[in-house]
Design brief:
With about 150 residues, this protein is of the alpha+beta class. The protein is built from 4 helices and 8 strands. Helix content is about 20%, strand content about 50%.
């Protein structure tokens, strides 16, 4: 499962980040991201924008990563991660993925710390097969437990 998750995260440099407003309304934002071996997702954002403000009020968040050039009717793939997001000072994963990145004052690094993952890779897992599991950090990596197909 680890290899599948890592391959899916490498499939696109963009992710969709879902947050919840203080009033309970859903909000989605697209951002470039980096990732760590324990599946933390790291992105850069301006602290005053809606999704950053939402995270200060409610840290619950989800991230979806998929290759947007997929063709309907052919094998599809993607990964969804669910957990809590927060500002972080560690932009190492982001900088590693984007070598031309230079930090700048207006933006901050944010990270999703996932507790659940959902994998969809028809080439590897079979047609219409979703695999979900709880995440536990083990030796700097992750272990999915309670996996359901």
């Amino acid at each position: 499962m680890r290899a599948v998750a890592e391959e899916l995260l490498e499939a696109s440099a963009l992710c969709a980040i879902s947050t919840v407003s203080p009033g309970g309304r859903a909000h989605v934002n697209t951002a470039y991201f980096g990732w760590t071996p324990d599946l933390r997702i790291v992105w850069m954002s301006e602290p005053r924008v809606r999704h950053s403000r939402n995270l200060r009020a409610r840290p619950s968040a989800a991230v979806a990563v998929y290759n947007s050039t997929q063709t309907w009717g052919r094998p599809d793939r993607g990964i969804q991660l669910f957990g809590s997001a927060r500002p972080t000072r560690d932009d190492t994963a982001y900088a590693a993925r984007f070598p031309e990145y230079e930090s700048f004052e207006a933006y901050r690094a944010y990270e999703l710390v996932p507790n659940r993952v959902k994998l969809f890779d028809e080439r590897t897992l079979g047609a219409a097969t979703f695999v979900t599991g709880q995440l536990m950090v083990v030796d700097g990596g992750f272990l999915a437990s309670g996996v359901n197909q």
